[in-house]
Structures are given as structure tokens and as C-alpha cells.
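call fold(seq) -> C-alpha cells
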Amino acid sequence: MELTVEGLTAGYGPGRPVLNGIDLALPAGRVVAIVGPNGCGKSTLLRSIARLHRPDAGRVLVGGEDIWRLRPRHAAHRVALLPQSPQAPEAVTVAGLVRYGRHPHQGLFRQWSAKDERLTAGALRATGVDAFADHRLDRLSGGQRQRCWLAMVLAQDAPVVLLDEPTSALDLGHAVEVLELVREVAAGGRTVVMVLHDLAAAARYADLVVAMRDGGVVAWGAPREVVDAPLVRALYDIESDVLAAPGDGAPVIVPRAGARVAAG
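ret:
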């Protein structure tokens, strides 16, 4: 389903605006990376889409329906969020964690079903953690745990998946593994929106880049069209060379020595 953000304004009380009238139209089946300096509003935008931070104005539409007008359980059928530092119950197994993804689909008259079992098993297989299903989550490596959390989000079966810094604290190998998995998720038809600090990784793995600064969108589009030296300067106040990677031509950002420039 398409994700549309219209005039989204949000903050943390009077005199503390964070988002200033964000407008975006994000198609289904694409990986979208939100990038920008610390404090620019990336996570607040994600939280507003996920119904964790109520905006002051504007709308968030998934498949044409305003996510903030839906009941929480129905909204969870449309949008799934993996936060930055998720917390799991002590000693939970991988399969037990992934089953939590089906919680929004349970109710007084809707208990565990064959469909829940099928979607849970499918999420375990899709993320390559089915071999660890009976293992305790806290005994796995960081990369394995992140794939387990992604399996939980996939089991929720929402058409829009939000990931807040899914590669933070991962080494390069595990980060690439997670980003490749994100692309597979989008190839299955879901809209994946992720916050990334690594602009080079965003340029390589995302179909669309949304660049933010000071609560607004300064550029958005295909990485090869929008990621250039002026954008890097506008976001991070540094001078850089943006080169085309051998093979696929993805933008590669190389900061120059003494690269810092005056803010603004």
C-alpha cells in the first residue's frame, strides 16, 4: 500500500517544533531511507507514522486511510514498527518472540489460528532464523538477533514496515546482511521506511532517499538523482566528493580533509 504524509507538523510542547509540514508520497514495494543530521526529526517522523507521537497537524494515510483515525489494533494491521532498541522478555525463544508479531490479530473471539502459525513460520524462514527457532534470543549474535526482530515485524503482516536505525551497533557484515534482507522484504510488495545514519548505505540500498534537516525535507528522490556534494554540505556542513561506485554506480561519499564548513 502507498504511504502518504500530508502537511505533517509535530513537536514536544509549545515552542518545541520538530516537524514542519512534511509532505511525502511513498509507493508500495520500495525501500525508503530517511537520512539527515542528529535532531533533524527523522525518528519523530517515523514515530508519527507509527502512531507513537501524535502530530499537531497533518495526516498519515496508508492505502488512503488516515492511520490516526483507526483503532490502534486496526492501525497495527497496516503499519509495523521496529524501534531502535527493542526489549524482549527475559529468556524468550526466537519462535516466542516472532509470535508476538501476531498479537494485533488476536482478540477475545480470535485466538491463535493456522494462519498465525503459517505467517510465523514464513517469517522465520524469510529471515533465515528458522534454524534458531527454539534458541533463546539473548544467546544469539547481534546480527542474528536483529534478523529475529525483523521476523517478528514481518509476522505482523502489515503492508508498511518502519525500521528505526536497523543497522545501529552492527558490524559491516551484519549490517549488509540486514539491508539485503530489507530489500527482499520490499520486493515482496511492502513499503519499507527506515531511518539510517549512513548516507552511503542509504544511497546503495534504498530506492528513495528522504533527506531532512531542521524538521523539513530538503530533498527526496532516487539516490543517483539527489545524493551529491551540495546535498552532503546542506545536511552535514562538510565538503565531500561523491563518486560513482564501480559496478552499479551507487553514490559513494568521500569527505574531504578539513571538510568542515560553517553551519548553514
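The first strand starts at residue 3 and ends at 11.
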